[in-house]
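Translate sequence into structure tokens.
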Amino acid sequence: MAVEIIMLSVLRAGPIHGYELKRRVQRTTLTSLSNNSLYPVLRRFEEAGAVTKSVEEQDGRPDRKVYTITETGRRLFSDLIATLPAKLAASEEEFLARVSFFHELSPEQRLGILDARAAVLDRGISQVRTLIAESEKSPSREWRNLSMAHLVERFEGERRWITDLTTKAGS
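Result follows.
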């Protein structure tokens, strides 16, 4: 869904042909985007009335398909960024895609997204700490325990960041 959010965001800037849309989406995400993933999403958007497609003729070259976002697409974009479903909250990319549009959301929507991500992190911290506590102190577990301790540090670091964002997001 993060790619869909980014695609609709790019389309909000104005009509764009498929190749340029792909290039701009790839520039803003860590996920590579192939034509086999781009065009099916555009087709779904078209079928849902979120985008329209026109054909631009080019001399000596294949015609270009140009995509334009509709009002339905703008509403879809707003709906996608306004919530972070529990099943997506574990994805850092999904979370960050929404945070980058916090300026367009209400404080309540921001806090809902932050709460969903915080719940995932809290569960992760608890689960990994339990595993560390249950782990035997033996040389064969040393590297596993080091990696789990690092994971807890990462989760706790992001959790602190979310606490800071929560203070800012409520205003």
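Note: The beta strands are 16-17, 51-58, 61-69.
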